[in-house]
Amino acid sequence: MKKLVSLALSAVLALSVVACGSSDTAASTTESTSESSDATASADGAFKIGGIGPITGGAAIYGQAVMNAAQMATDEINAAGGINGYQVEFRFEDDEHDAEKSVNAYNTLKDWGMQMLMGTVTSTPCTAVVAKTAEDNMFQLTPSGSAVESIAQPNAFRVCFSDPNQGLASAQYIGENHLATKVAVIYNSSDVYSSGIYQKFAEEAPNQGIEVVSAEAFTEDSKTDFSVQLQKAKEAGAELVFLPIYYTEASIILTQANSMGYAPMFFGCDGLDGILGVENFDTSLTEDVMLLTPFVADAQDEKTQAFVSAYEEKFGETPNQFAADTYDAMYIIKAAAEKAGVTPDMSASDICEAMKTAMTEITFDGLTGEGMTWDADGEPSKAPKAMKIVDGAYTAM
User: Fold this and answer.
1) Across residues 128-151, what is the average pLDDT?
2) Cβ–Cβ under 8 Å, residues 295 and 367
3) Closest Cα to residue 76, out of 293, 328, 359?
4) What is the DSSP secondary structure assignment for residue 41, as one 8-state letter?
5) Which residues touch 301 (CB under 8 Å, ≥6 apart)?
6) Most CB within 10 Å of its CB: which of 53, 73, 136, 166?
7) Element containing residue 291 per DSSP (H, E)
């Protein structure tokens, strides 16, 4: 059981809960250095850090936020003197939330000269790519790939919570805050993120006095009509519907539940972050929807306010949890690289060996957690937060 599942987590929860164009176009990348993107890293060169995620397709809100935040952090790092005195060159590739395209994006970044990977954004592509980074012994830090398998290699670490920990924490939050005793679950059985959260939620539910009265799955081939799943939840008397799924499908479920006059509480995880940006969706249906997330944009601490203000000024929108995880990820890479003393003239493999050790030695205070630490298994130790959508905005609980 990871460090996240601890007495500290329970205490926190009791108080409160993966850039457009294809990868072969100029629009699919961003770079932050005056040097050419195909320049060879050297002793007086720049660190080359790659990023991969969906900036087109159904999970584009996630990838766009990651690309934006990574670029913002890179610009700040470079302006402040870089990493160990060297500038950082960042390049991002679109994978459309597709595993095969994510591997292709990884190969493109390798050809570019990438030395470390900040990615990928979503779990299934990340799981495919981590097999390749392990073969190459390239350091990988995913901001949001939450499946257990996504970092199942010694070269890989993550910023976000794992799927099992999200399922466990969700059940604990619902139980400890007495939100409901009869709960229905609608999950994607063909997606490792969704099914991983559901499995752990179902295990923990009885310990929290929760009866799972209905657990209905869908797949990638059947994610437009949820009337059957909703009807079963309604007939079973579910007071709360748990949605460990992504925001696009969640928006359809909320719409269809409304049309059939079913109004339970809805509770999700970080995959729901982005639902307020779904096109042609009546966002008033999200009122009082709750979700676990490590970041709440309206938090009043100085660090969050500074980040939100800078992000809104630069990109014209409020950053989501994926942006916050990524902003932390870039600074975590900086902290570990400085702890390790790596330089751009080192091989990717040598950098990785040094970074693996350094990651277990640093403590990081970020937007998504204070005092974050990592063991060799790559999992972060930090506490989650809960938020509720109120009047069309995410609000801390």
Assistant:
1) 96
2) yes
3) 328
4) P
5) none
6) 53
7) strand 290-293
Q: From CA 350, how far away is CA 192, in angstroms rounded?
A: 31
Give 284's pLDDT tier (boundaries 50, 70, 90): very high
- CA trace torsion 379, 351, 107, 143 (10° rounding): 30
Distance from C-alpha of 189 to C-alpha of 182, rounded to nearest angstrom: 21
**DSSP bridge partners of 116:** 49, 139
Give the pLDDT confidence of 194-233 residue by residue, as tens digits.
999 999 999 999 999 999 999 999 998 999 999 999 999 9
Mean pLDDT for all residues in the chain = 89
How many residues are recorded in the chain?
A: 397
Say whether pLDDT at 35 is over 50: no
Give the mean pLDDT of 286-299: 89
CA end-to-end span of the chain, whole Å?
26
What pLDDT, on the 0 to 100 scale, is given for residue 395?
84
Structure confidence at residue 273 (pLDDT): 84
Residue pLDDT, tens place only, 74-118:
999 999 999 999 999 999 999 999 999 999 999 999 999 999 999
Instruction: Give dist(CA 30, CA 1) in Å, integer.
Output: 38
- Residue pair 110/365 in contact (Cβ under 8 Å)? The answer is no
CB 55 within 8 A of CB 67: yes
pLDDT of residue 6: 42
C-alpha neighbours within 13 Å on the C-beta side of residue 286: 28
Residue 156: exposure state from Cβ atoms within 10 A (0-12, 13-18, ≥19) = buried
Burial class (CB in 10 A: 0-12, 13-18, 19+), 80: exposed
Tokens of 288: 């009082």
> Is residue 102 a contact partner of residue 125, using CB atoms and an 8 Å limit?
yes
Measured between alpha carbons, how far is 7 from 14 in angstroms, rounded to an integer? 10
Tokens of 293: 């997330």
String of DSSP letters for 354-388:
HHHHHHTT--EEETTEEEEEE-TT--EE---EEEE
Over residues 233-268, the pLDDT tens digits come to 999 999 999 999 999 999 999 999 999 999 999 999
